[in-house]
Amino acid sequence: MNEIEKRIAELNQLLHDYGYAYYVLDKPVVSDAVYDQLLHELIALEEANPSLIYPDSPTQRVGGAVLKGFQKVTHATPMLSLSNAFNEADLRDFDRKIRQAIGDDFSYVCELKIDGLAIALRYENGVFVQGATRGDGQVGEDITANLKTIRAIPLRLKQPVTIEVRGEAYMPKKSFESLNEARAENGEELFANPRNAAAGSLRQLDPKIAASRQLSTFIYAVGGDGEAYSIDSHGEMLDYLQTLGFPSNREREVCATIDDVLTFIEKWTAMRNDLPYEIDGIVIKVNRYAHQDELGFTAKSPRWAIAYKFPAEEVVTTLLDIDLTVGRTGVITPTAILAPVQVAGTTVGRASLHNEDLIREKDIRIGDTVIIRKAGDIIPEVVGVILEQRPDDSKPYEMPTHCIACDSELIRLEGEVALRCVNPTCPAQIAEGIKHFVSRNAMNIDGLGEKVVEQLLREGYIHNVADLYLLQIEQLVELERMGQKSATNLVEALERSKENSLERLLFGLGIRHVGEKAAKILAEQYETMNALMQAKKEELTAIHEIGEKMADSVVAYFENEEVQLLITRLADVGINMTYKGKKIQVEAGANPFAGKTIVLTGKLEQLTRNEAKAKIEELGGIVTGSVSKKTDLVIAGEDAGSKLDKAQSLGIEIWDENRLIEQLQQ
Ligand code: IVH
Q1: Which of 47, 271, 433, 655 is most buried as measured by Cβ atoms within 10 A of its Cβ?
Q2: Which part of the chain is CATH 1.10.287.610?
Q3: Which residue spans of the chain are classified as CATH 1.10.150.20?
């Protein structure tokens, strides 16, 4: 190695180390001036010797190229979100369920819930190779170039490990304030809060913009199975991640009981304003991985963790008007139009009023002074009215008797609080149905926003979802704000959506009571649209997760002749009608797991819970969390508790771990 090579290697290492001291240990060892001086020395040497630029050099944070778009990234394991707790009762309930499942001998780790956006970072042999957003939890976007600009994200780890980590990218309060000051000076629109500013920055195609935004990051978990690193608990994992060079938040605490958790929450409720970054709650996680495995997951979130959300801020404003909309299923939803007001960091001009009963119960009237807040810090809602400030001439609000879109009479179905338009040809319902069909979690058709759908309907280009697939570029360019490029993109997106697996179509059709999860289960079980269309109610209810109400709805839906016609048309335009996920082998005798609903309980010795679950699912079994009449088989490990008792009382077949392993090996 010559002198220049040596100096370049040395500068790389020094700058990595200084960054680690600053961002991870929070103990800077050199001043910013010294850091910058060394960085400039490295830049100069690299400019003179471009072949000596390491891919993970600290000078490579701001890449040159402006991207054309973001590539999609499929997460190796899904990025789940957490269920929420809003008060002490929710937390005690969470704690009780955990103790019921795993006993009293466990601890929690409490962490700050950083208000930013979730990211996944992949390292190969210690070098940062890819960073992605959460997206829909399964597929996110590759924002590596932007993430590289975040100085707290190490480009090179302390050890050459291959690992994926998850964390939160955020904008510190100070950066947010100075960004908005600069934007105000330039007459640009302000960001509502640091979270939006961080998300907006990482969505930029030019990494130079992200680089100028001074974002930061905390890492809070490893992606995938933590036990694969021979680490037993989440707390120890955070320590390990820190030794690798990741910034983990130090304001965390192991708590032995839920009372200690509540004390931690109390402390941070009082101190959150003193932190240099925004937090919106506290995350509480069961510490040991073995316990986490035992508790498992629901479809959306782990059972071993919960997010406590700080109570919503309440503010007062005037109710200017009540706006009514017709939803996809005909439900009429009233929305409050408010004199714009700041709540929890954003300007709010509309708030949900839910339904007629709520308006009547709270006697909400146009012209009232109302208290509003954000439920779960997202959706603004009207909490109540300040009666003392009511104008003398105000009148109680009356809901209309006829649909605002099609003028047919509104009805109130028995047992429902909502007013409904039951006219199947109501144009507002059709529009909402199409918007749902194209939405991200359904057919995921980019470029078909609400405004475009409404225009297409108005122009008479479409009448139902099948018509979308007949749209021509020449027609689309006629629409407002639609150029040749966006028209071409839209037709391509439509074309791509034809290949979607069946569950997206099923969800997109908007069958009542069939949400995303149910659509997936139906697609998995029936594999083809034809098979599902023939399904009998008894067959459907025999599936573990499908109840009476959903089965009735599915059967009634497919009996409808118009639906049958629509499906024929969708098939004719070339939409895939089959399930493309892992096939379940349901033929009898294929293997002892195929098509069976199986519950794992107690401690397994030779496999982790997740491994056992994965293997069973690979063979077509369905692993669920609770024992019921629909359970076919219970695998009971050591110290199995109430689930085993229940299985015995229901006469369900029970295997021990050895039998499971024997059968898995067949
Ligand atoms: S743990 C499997 N820890 O809050 C669950 N999340 O719904 C992994 N968040 O999307 C999440 N701070 O983006 C965890 N210390 C923390 C967090 C945290 C912020 C975000 C995260 C997630 C959401 C929870």
Answers
A1: 433
A2: 3-61
A3: 427-497, 502-572
Element (H, E) at 590: none
Q: How confident is the model at residue 344 (pLDDT cuts 50, 70, 90)?
A: low
Atom of ligand 1 nearest to the CA of 285: 1
Buried b (16+ CB within 10 A) or exposed e, 478-503: ebeebeeebbebbbebbeebeebbbb
Q: Which atom of ligand 1 is nearest to the CA of 134?
A: 10
Q: Contact at 8 Å (CB) between 513 and 553?
A: yes
Please state whether beta strands 127-133 and 117-124 pair in parallel, antiparallel, or not at all (unpaired): antiparallel
Nearest CA to ligand 1 atom 17: 113
Instruction: Output the ligand 1 site: residues, CB below 6 A.
Output: 80-82, 111, 113-114, 118, 168, 220-221, 283, 302, 305, 307
Mean pLDDT across 263-273: 92
Which CATH number applies to 427-497? 1.10.150.20
pLDDT at 602 over 70: yes
Contacts 24+ apart (CB under 8 A), 382-387: 382/319, 382/336, 382/351, 382/352, 382/353, 383/314, 386/316
Pick among 1.10.443.10, 2.40.50.140, 2.40.290.10, 3.50.50.60: CATH of 314-389: 2.40.50.140
Bridge partners of 386, per DSSP, are: none
Q: Which among 75, 114, 249, 250 is the best mutation to test ligand 1's pocket, defined by most ligand atoms within 8 Å of the CB?
A: 114
- What would the CATH number be for the domain defined by 502-572? 1.10.150.20
CATH superfamily ID and name for 3-61: Helix hairpin bin (1.10.287.610)
* Span from the CA of 282 to the centroid of ligand 1 (angstroms): 9
Pick among 3.30.470.30, 3.40.640.10, 3.30.360.10, 3.40.50.720: CATH of 83-309: 3.30.470.30
Q: Is 408 exposed, middle or buried (0-12, 13-18, 19+ CB in 10 A)?
A: middle
Q: Which atom of ligand 1 is nearest to the CA of 252?
A: 15
**pLDDT bucket at 650, cuts 50 / 70 / 90:** confident
CA of 664 to the centre of ligand 1 (A): 35
- CATH code for the structural domain at 597-665: 3.40.50.10190
Residue 553, pLDDT above cutoff 90: yes
From the list 199, 206, 203, 241, the residue with the least C-alpha distance to 223 is: 241
- Ligand 1 centre to CA of 36 (Å) is 33
**pLDDT tens digits along 216-261:** 999 999 998 777 888 999 999 999 999 999 999 999 999 999 999 9
Q: What's the length of the chain?
A: 666
The whole model's pTM is what?
0.58
> Residue holding tokens 């605490």?
253
The per-residue pLDDT for 153 is: 96
Q: CATH 3.30.470.30 residue ranges in the chain?
A: 83-309
pLDDT score of 279? 94
- Reply yes or no on whether the pLDDT at 583 is more than 60: no
Q: How far is the CA of 297 from the centre of ligand 1 (A)?
A: 15
pLDDT at 377 over 60: no
| Residue minimizing CA distance to atom 16 of ligand 1 | 113
Catalytic residue positions, numbered: 113
